[in-house]
Specification:
34% of the residues lie in helices and 10% in strands. The protein has 641 residues and is of the alpha/beta class. A 6-stranded mixed sheet has the order 12-17-16-15-13-14, sandwiched between helices. A 5-stranded parallel sheet has the order 4-3-2-1-11. The longest helix has 22 residues. It is globular, with a radius of gyration of 26 Å. Bound molecules: alpha-D-glucopyranose. The site of alpha-D-glucopyranose has 7 residues, from loops.
Length: 641
């Protein structure tokens, strides 16, 4: 990573800042203006929180608890409701190809409005920067978490966190709804690719790396649970979705996790304890339920466990419109749902559209005493503590010097390294035959086939440019796997490319193809749209595999968010690579296919034989996988210059 711009070499800058402050404070004193403790950064954060809280009206307090959608966050709305936070939901952008500078203008306009309110409390702008700043055109898109789990490289994941923080700050955004620290126990879950692993310890390893990557390293004596964000080149993080989101019945999203308390604590809770130890700024609550109780109204797990027993002192935020989903159908008995979630211990409510109703209902309940003021004060104190801890009062505005961090080549190199290390080699050569990989760069003629060979959107997956993700090659800047193959092989190599070549054309040239690379997999999806009970490779993937691999030596590269059914076809494959959802840096795939780097990735999840085995996880008594958790063949780098 580049040395921080000279401005941020702390000792000199800090000394200058303190001196300036001392001068300013004495000037204030000289003018006789009121000294305002919460505005004094030399004061302890706790005292600043108490001072500010003591000055706030109920309307200002409830405003701080409200997070509204970007599209509604006009200056007048921000000022009328004293809005404390704004988010971009998946795909919520100022324009399709908005530049970093244009994003910064949006955030600056909102911040100016917020600072003009009576107490001048800055807003906190949040976005789902879950594999890079992925809503934003031209951002570096890193492999999704399942691929990072395959790397087993926490130092790399920490670097990804810092690069993501820089690319978020490039757009003026200081808050990321990341990391997802779900322990996905069933690949039928549409969010399994957002989980580093089925294995708790691996998720803990990654959580302990990504949180300081995003937020910065807390000092050795940092009190457990106190939110920590090092400075204006870091972002506040959000461990999500608390707790047990990855353990629902049959992997059904937002459904019910049926587990003993012991198993919930053993399997799903440890990554949160690690995140809290690292000073994570916020925790997002899961839509799911535990033993039939919605997490958003589970006071025992949110307040008694997370806040009291685990000493979490950041703020707890709902998921998107989660208050509405307390009831089925949603948004029934809204008044009661608000009472349940606030009483459970939620501090900030992601209320993208219904903020007028939310504010009115909550105000009424506090005024009537059905919600106690000390609960409101706890919520607001936590939110203010994070804002003070991250320096938002001192640095409320975007830093225009950071716009160049968006899509920076050094970040793309980190992403390319992550792609390399995420690839898991499951088969290399048919029984008894010599290995197929690495491939020759000097082949005379090769075939590249499959729906995912030349589709940037497919290789990025969900949460890319839009909530669900999308196909296509102009969605953002990046390199497809086909483009990477073309740049890897010699210029004498003839490359035939067809997504779904017909059998006769393959047969005609079969003897001329030294090998074929077949890249197939899943189309992008997010959340419930990704729930899948059969986990077959979407058509025409299996047909392409059969047609090509039946006639030409073939390497199948599977681009998917999870293990899929491969057992029926694996016999026809000469090699099989799990590429997960690699993101924009397709060169990382070619780097390893052609031997510039060896295969090192290890399965972060069990690869089942058939879906009727599910759920089946490492450590289960009944464990009969096609490829076990931790499996991965290796190859040595070979120079083919
Ligand atoms: C979504 C997701 C959550 C995300 C939030 C804001 O529904 O569940 O992961 O952070 O809403 O986009």
């Amino acid at each position: 990573m580049r040395a921080a711009p000279t401005m941020w070499r702390w000792p000199a800058a800090a000394a200058a800042a303190w001196l300036l402050l001392a001068v300013l404070l004495s000037a204030v004193a000289a003018t006789g203006a009121e000294y305002v403790k919460y505005k004094d950064p030399t004061q302890p954060i706790g005292e600043r929180v108490d001072d500010l809280l003591s000055r706030m009206t109920l309307a200002e307090k409830i405003g701080q608890m409200s997070q509204i959608e970007r599209a509604n966050a006009s200056s007048s709305v921000i000022q009328k409701y004293f809005v404390g936070s704004v988010l971009s939901g998946g795909g919520s952008v100022p324009s399709e190809k908005a530049t970093a500078a244009q994003w910064q203008q949006v955030v600056t306009k909102m911040q100016k409005a917020a600072l003009k309110t009576r107490l001048g409390i800055p807003i906190l702008y949040g976005i789902d920067a879950v594999h890079g700043n992925n809503n934003v055109y031209n951002a570096t898109i890193f492999p999704h978490n399942v691929g990072l789990g395959a790397t087993r490289d926490p130092k790399l994941v920490k670097r990804i966190g810092h690069a993501t923080a820089l690319e978020s700050r490039a757009t003026g955004i200081p808050y990321a709804f990341a990391p997802c620290v779900a322990v996905c126990r069933d690949p039928r879950w549409g969010r399994c690719y957002e989980s580093y692993s089925e294995e708790t310890k691996l998720v803990q390893l990654m959580a302990s790396a990504i949180v300081p990557g995003l937020q910065g390293d807390p000092p050795a004596n940092h009190p457990k649970g106190t939110p920590f964000v090092a400075g204006p080149m870091n972002v506040a993080g959000c461990a999500k979705h608390y707790v047990g989101d990855g353990g629902t019945r049959r992997g059904i999203n937002e459904n019910n996790t049926v587990l003993s308390f012991h198993d919930l604590m053993r399997i799903h809770m440890p990554p949160y304890d690690d995140a809290v130890i690292k000073g994570v700024a916020s925790v997002m609550i899961s839509y799911s339920s535990w033993n039939g109780v919605k997490m958003h109204e589970n006071r025992f797990l949110v307040t008694d466990m997370l806040k009291n027993k685990m000493h979490f002192r950041g703020f707890v935020i709902t998921d998107w419109q989660a208050v509405d989903r307390i009831t089925t159908p949603p948004h029934q008995h809204y008044y009661h749902s608000i009472q349940e979630t606030i009483h459970a211990g939620i501090d900030m409510v992601m209320i993208p559209y219904d903020y007028p109703e939310f504010v009115a209902d909550l105000t009424s309940q506090v005024s009537k005493g059905t919600i106690r003021m000390d609960r409101i004060n706890d919520a607001v104190s936590r939110i203010l503590r994070v804002k003070f801890a991250m320096g938002l009062f001192e640095n409320p505005f975007p830093d225009h010097r950071l716009t160049g961090e968006l899509g920076h080549k050094e970040h793309r190199e980190i992403a390319r390294e992550a792609v390399r290390k995420s690839l898991v080699l499951l088969k290399n050569g048919k029984g008894g035959q010599k290995p197929v990989l690495p491939l020759s760069k000097k082949a005379s003629k090769i075939l590249v086939a499959g729906s995912h060979a030349h589709n940037l959107g497919f290789q990025c997956g969900g949460w890319t440019k839009s909530w669900q993700g999308q196909g296509g090659n102009n969605i953002t800047a990046g390199t497809t796997i086909l483009e990477a193959i073309k740049s890897a092989v010699g210029n004498t190599t003839v490359i035939d490319h067809a997504e779904h070549p017909d059998k006769s054309s393959i047969a005609k040239d079969a003897s001329e193809y030294e090998y074929a690379v077949v890249v197939v997999g899943e189309p992008p999806y997010a959340e419930t749209a990704g729930d899948n009970q059969n986990l077959t490779i979407p058509s025409p993937g299996p047909e392409v595999i059969k047609d090509v691999c039946g006639l030409v030596k073939c390497v199948v590269v599977l681009v998917s968010g999870r293990p899929l059914v491969v057992e029926p076809y694996i016999g026809s494959m000469d090699a099989l690579v799990a590429a997960w959802l690699p993101g924009t840096e397709g060169h990382g795939v070619a780097d390893v296919l052609f031997g510039d780097y060896g295969f090192t990735g290890k399965l972060p999840r069990t690869w089942f034989k058939a879906v009727d085995q599910l759920p089946m996880n490492y450590g289960d008594k009944r464990y009969d996988p096609l490829f076990p958790f931790g499996f991965g063949l290796t190859t040595k780098p070979t120079s083919q210059s």
